[in-house]
Write a structure and sequence with these properties.
CATH superfamily of the largest domain in chain B: Class I glutamine amidotransferase (GATase) domain
Structural class of chain A: alpha/beta
CATH architecture of the largest domain in chain A: 3-Layer(aba) Sandwich
Radius of gyration of chain B: 42 Å
Strand order of the largest sheet of chain B: 18-17-19-20-26-25-24-22
Shape of chain A: elongated
Largest sheet of chain A: 6 strands, mixed
Helix content of chain B: 10-25%
Oligomer: heterodimer
Strand order of the largest sheet of chain A: 5-4-3-6-7-10
Structural class of chain B: alpha/beta
Number of helices of chain B: 16
Shape of chain B: elongated
């Protein structure tokens, strides 16, 4: 968490991810984060989730006659259907990358997978509070586990998150294509990954998820060392997934690495933006609630799910 | 190929250091697990790839450069046999092989060993080397000019023979020095192969090698070489029944540190053994053997004295040619019948035996032309010219080759006509009785008469007083004044007339005007005058090898001659060429003239230089020190390791390390340039 981000939110209390990691219970963790996060705000821009009336529209054949406003018919002698502001039946699915690379951690921070789990838990809790249906799908090079969205599946989601293990090499394209075929009903998809692939390939894999009108939110989780590359000694770097080793003198090409990773992030951000996909890059040393806040602020327009 | 400091070759291990470091680093490096090497792989950085060998050429160049530098520090050199095969120009040698072929080298196996050593030296000549074979004895001869052709050198060596000449190191070393001085090759070396006879080196020879020239002595001398020689023979003559009897006395020398006992000595005359004697000789001593007299039956007799049976055969025999003694006939003409004026003269001439003088005395009145015709010398002893000799008889006698001694005195009167053969006109009597008298103050020592008095203490003429003498007026232009008195007046004057000689003394040879007859110089002076005027030449019974015999003088005639040397080689000597014959062989030379083609030939006996019999060796180091100025120069022995250089010397002369170092550094520079270019190309590619 940078100082600037703290300064942007005076009075807000953020919880260090290292402290969060000590909370073994994901539900408690989610409540701690989300409640604190909500209570810390004077006005929650997205606190409107309800069954309040929104507007009337004319009856068309096929509409449920139970939704006809009979009182209005009495006054106007016309059939109108009542429409409410909130649709509480939206599916909220967490798509969690559990490839081996997500197990990376440095300097005592939670691993990317742990951080992603916290993030998924928090947002699932938030969704549950909004009476959305929550589900989860974990994948590496294939789909690992799947909990379909349901209003009663919050605990299962937490259980799945808790039991997620990064063990195998991952690949985005195959599992995401399979997922795209799976989602028949539109909803909110929360994709959390470290996106170690070429940006074009990533976008090609993700695009199908949006075909049926899913609202896709992408969290790009990286460790601080993956960005800063502050290694000192010449060492052999081993790819967690391929096990390939390359001798590297970090001092000599830190600058180029940083440039490359920055270009990668920028490219992803640009391409997701072009595809109207919400993208947020977060690092595992950032306070979770700060990340949530930063993200939600930028998504204010999505407070209401159409 | 060998190395002076082979331990430094351990430095070759430095080639492996980079590889070892690389391997060790690879083993020790820590492994960092990283999510993905996707970006790491994209970075084209050397540190990633330098662990893999991409340019084998550069690696090999570096390794080779290190190897060359290490090898340079190890100081490599090529061994001697390799040098002979692949001699570099940097080490090319100018070698002068001095081979002693003097008579003493004929001792035992000296000559064969010397040739073996010379052959070994020739075998060590490299392709870039040049060698000169110099055979020397009394003189040095450049047998083969500087060449690299070992075949020619070997052929010249095989053709070389032992001569009869004496040993002299001086000319050989001077020749070697001049050859080496002319050479432009870097290494200049003279190899002296000899028995190093002490007599061959006087120590005063002005031979000095320049800096950089080396002299390697190879001695073939055997320690304690025993040698018995006949260095000389003498004769005593006696007349018996009108025949001359000769007694030969031979000197026998034992040139060894061991006594020689029972040495047989044999006299051989004309092929017949006259007598054999046995003699014991102490170490390094000499003895004489007197043989029984024999009668000289022929005009010239060849005799040989033989002795010993040692390793040096050449000096075991001594040749000589003995001829009957020749007498000089002298006619003394006095003014009157009284022989008193010629008393001293006749007595003096009667003493000599080399030659013997046959003296006859006549008063002037009784002299006839016939009486002087057979005389070798006529002495006009204070007398007027005999009447019988007037009118040209005396002149013709002299011009035919006769000798005339005119002793002036009170009675001497000579007419102008007779004076035509005289050196000058007889003048007045000069009286020097007022003081201590005159002395003979000047003698012309270049004249044969006074030559014997040339050396110090060889005749004191100043003791003789001359109270009166005759002045010489108008000495003729072709006369030669050979003595003067202390006042400058002529004491003796000579003139040649035809083939004869005339000497005029201006004072008497008795005691009337001078006390010269009472002085020791009188006898030799009279003898010299008689020999000179009688043109007596003593014939040598033998010559020594190296001497030059003038055959015209020796045999008193100029004609075509054929000389047969002891080795049966025939030399033609036409009359119109030089009649000088260099005597180079031991034995008897026979000389025939065209007129005497079938008769008994003239003969000359030639013997070794007696010094050659002394085999005492010189320390080669002493000679080397004297010639090179360095007392520490290595002395090679007969073992023959003469041209073997020490590894240090070999390495120093070759200096291969320098080339290796340069090559190594050049390789490093080239490698650096290539590596930089490759690096630049890869960086921008």
């Amino acid at each position: 968490m940078s100082h600037d981000e703290r300064g942007a939110m005076p009075g807000a209390r953020f919880v260090d991810p290292k402290i969060l990691a000590r909370i073994g219970n994901l539900e408690l963790l989610a409540k701690t984060v989300v409640d604190g996060f909500i209570n810390g705000l004077h006005r929650a821009p997205f606190f409107g989730a309800s069954v309040d009336f929104a507007e009337h529209r004319g009856y068309v054949a096929g509409d449920d006659i139970r939704r006809v406003d009979w009182k209005l018919y009495a006054r106007t002698d016309r059939y109108y259907i009542k429409q409410y502001e909130a649709d509480t039946n939206t599916n909220f699915t967490v798509l969690l990358d559990v490839s081996k690379s997500m197990s990376f951690t440095s300097s005592g921070a939670p691993s990317k997978l742990e951080y992603a789990s916290y993030l998924g838990a928090c947002l699932s809790y938030l969704a549950t509070r909004q009476r959305d249906r929550v589900g989860i799908l974990t994948f590496d090079s294939d789909i690992v586990s799947h909990v379909p969205p349901s209003a009663k599946h919050f605990d299962m989601v937490l259980h799945t998150l808790d039991g997620a293990r990064a063990e195998r090499p991952g690949h985005l394209v195959a599992p995401l294509h399979k997922m795209a075929e799976h989602f028949k009903r539109r909803g909110i998809l929360l994709l959390i990954s470290d996106f170690y692939d070429e940006p074009d390939a990533i976008l090609d894999a993700i695009k199908p998820l949006r075909f049926i009108g899913n609202d896709l939110i992408v969290f790009h989780v990286l460790d601080r060392e993956e960005i800063d590359f502050n290694y000192k000694d010449a060492s052999a770097f081993e790819d967690l997934e391929s096990r390939e080793q390359i001798p590297v003198v970090p001092d000599s090409f830190r600058k180029q690495y940083r440039q490359l990773i920055r270009e990668h992030i920028n490219t992803l951000s640009t391409k997701f933006s072009e595809s109207r996909i919400d993208y947020a890059q977060i690092t595992t040393d950032e306070p979770l609630d700060a990340s949530l806040f930063r993200y939600m602020s930028s998504r204010e327009r999505l407070a209401r799910v159409k | 190929m060998a190395f002076l400091t082979p331990l430094l070759l351990l430095g070759l291990g430095a080639i492996a250091v980079p590889v070892i470091v690389h391997l060790v680093q690879r083993e020790r490096k820590q492994v960092i697990h990283f999510p993905s090497l996707m970006f790491v792989q994209k970075i084209p950085y050397q540190s990633v790839r330098r662990r893999r060998i991409r340019h084998w050429f550069l690696l090999l160049t570096r390794a080779l450069a290190i190897a060359l530098i290490v090898a340079a520090f190890a100081r490599p050199f090529l061994r001697q046999n390799a040098i002979a095969a692949v001699a570099t120009s940097a080490g090319a040698r100018e070698v002068v092989i001095l081979l002693d072929q003097s008579a003493s080298m004929g001792y035992g196996d000296y000559w064969q060993r010397a040739k073996d050593e010379a052959a070994k030296a020739i075998g060590n000549i490299g392709t870039n080397d040049r060698a000169t074979l110099v055979l020397f004895s009394r003189n040095a001869e450049e047998n083969i000019r500087a060449t690299s052709d070992r075949g020619r050198l070997t052929a010249a060596l095989n053709a070389a023979k032992v001569t009869a000449s004496a040993t002299r190191f001086g000319p050989a070393l001077k020749l070697a020095e001049s050859i080496l001085a002319r050479s432009t090759l870097p290494r200049r070396e003279a190899i002296l192969i000899s028995d190093f006879q002490k007599t061959g080196w006087a120590g005063s020879e002005d031979v000095r090698f320049a800096e950089g020239m080396t002299l390697t002595p190879i001695s073939v001398a055997a320690p304690n070489a025993a040698n018995v020689a006949v260095p000389s023979v003498s004769f005593s003559r006696a007349s018996f029944s009108n025949q001359e009897r000769i007694t030969v006395t031979a000197g026998i020398a034992n040139k060894s540190s061991a006594p020689a006992t029972g040495v047989s000595v044999t006299l051989d005359i004309s092929g017949h053994i006259i007598e054999t004697k046995r003699v014991d000789i102490a170490p390094n001593a000499a003895a004489s053997v007197v043989f029984a007299p024999f009668t000289l039956s022929e005009p010239s007799v060849h005799g040989i004295v033989r002795t010993g049976n040692d390793g040096l055969a050449a000096d075991n025999s001594f040749d000589f040619i003995i001829t009957p003694s020749q007498s000089v006939s002298v006619l003394i003409i006095n003014s009157g019948a009284d022989n008193a004026p010629s008393f001293y003269l006749a007595k003096a001439l009667s003493i000599g035996n080399t030659p013997t003088f046959h003296v006859e005395t006549l008063p002037a009145a009784r002299v006839t032309p016939e009486s002087i015709a057979k005389q070798s010398v006529v002495i006009l002893n204070d007398t007027p010219l005999p009447p019988a000799l007037a009118g040209g008889a005396l002149k013709s006698y002299v011009e035919r080759g006769g000798g005339l001694l005119v002793v002036l005195g009170e009675h001497s009167t000579l007419s102008a006509g007779d004076a035509s053969i005289l050196p000058g006109m007889v003048g007045a009597i000069v009286n020097r009785m007022d003081g201590r008298g005159a002395t003979i103050g000047f003698r012309d020592y270049s004249h044969p008469v006074f030559e014997v008095f040339k050396a110090p203490r060889s005749g004191d003429f100043s003791a003789a007083r001359v109270l009166r003498y005759r002045a010489i007026a108008q000495p003729s232009a072709d006369s030669r004044i050979i003595a003067r008195f202390d006042d400058g007046a002529i004491a003796a004057v000579e003139r040649r007339a035809g083939a004869g000689r005339v000497v005029m003394l201006t004072t008497t040879l008795d005691d009337s005007w001078t006390d010269l007859p009472l002085k020791p110089v009188y006898l030799p002076l009279v003898h010299q005058l008689a020999r000179y005027l009688g043109q007596y030449e003593q014939t040598s019974a033998w010559y020594t090898v190296g001497q030059i015999a003038d055959l015209t003088t020796l045999f008193k005639s100029r004609t075509d001659r054929t000389v047969v040397t002891p080795s049966n080689e025939r030399l033609r000597m036409p009359a119109d060429t030089s009649s000088s014959l260099e005597l180079t062989e031991h034995g008897v030379y026979e000389i025939r003239t065209a007129a005497n083609a079938s008769g008994r030939p003239d003969r000359i006996a030639v013997n070794l230089d007696p010094a050659e019999s002394d085999l005492t060796s010189l320390d080669p180091a002493e000679l080397v020190a004297a010639v090179t100025g360095h007392a520490t120069q290595a002395t090679a022995t007969a073992a023959g390791a003469s041209t073997e250089l020490t590894p240090e010397e070999t390495e120093k002369t070759q200096s291969l390390w320098w080339y290796l170092l340069i090559l190594g550094l050049l390789l490093l520079v080239a490698e650096n340039i290539v590596a930089n270019r490759l690096s630049v190309n890869e960086r921008f590619s």
